[in-house]
Design a protein that fits this description.
Elements: E1 4-10, E2 16-23, H1 29-45, E3 62-67, H2 73-98
The chain binds zinc ion.
Length: about 100
């Protein structure tokens, strides 16, 4: 049975810098971490994001993969969209506080 994974780039306080939701067999835990790391490195190189946590400013970032309760991405999409809305709301608040 396939499971939906969530691979995250986290600071030591477990603030999520970026995440990748995926289902088997699209990736393995190792290839998902490599994909997320490459995507973040490219975004840093293009000055889209900084290589640090926007909340606590830590640059000690790590990657981890976990299995969700979902069996397919379609089933997980409503929850993923809700988290994305909350994360964008938090980003806007941090942007306002910075300026
Ligand atoms: Zn943090």
């Amino acid at each position: 049975m396939s499971k939906v994974h969530i691979t995250q780039c986290l600071c030591p306080n477990r603030h999520c810098i970026a995440a990748l939701a995926w289902e088997e067999p699209d990736f393995t835990s190792e290839s998902a971490i490599a994909k997320l790391r490459d995507t973040i490195n490219e975004a840093v190189s293009n000055n889209i994001i900084h290589h640090r946590c926007a909340i606590c400013q830590s640059t000690d970032l790590s990657y981890e993969d976990g299995i969700t309760r979902f069996e397919c991405l379609r089933e997980a999409m409503d929850d993923i969209a809700a988290v994305q809305v909350e994360n964008l709301r938090t980003k806007r608040m941090l942007d306002v506080l910075k300026n």
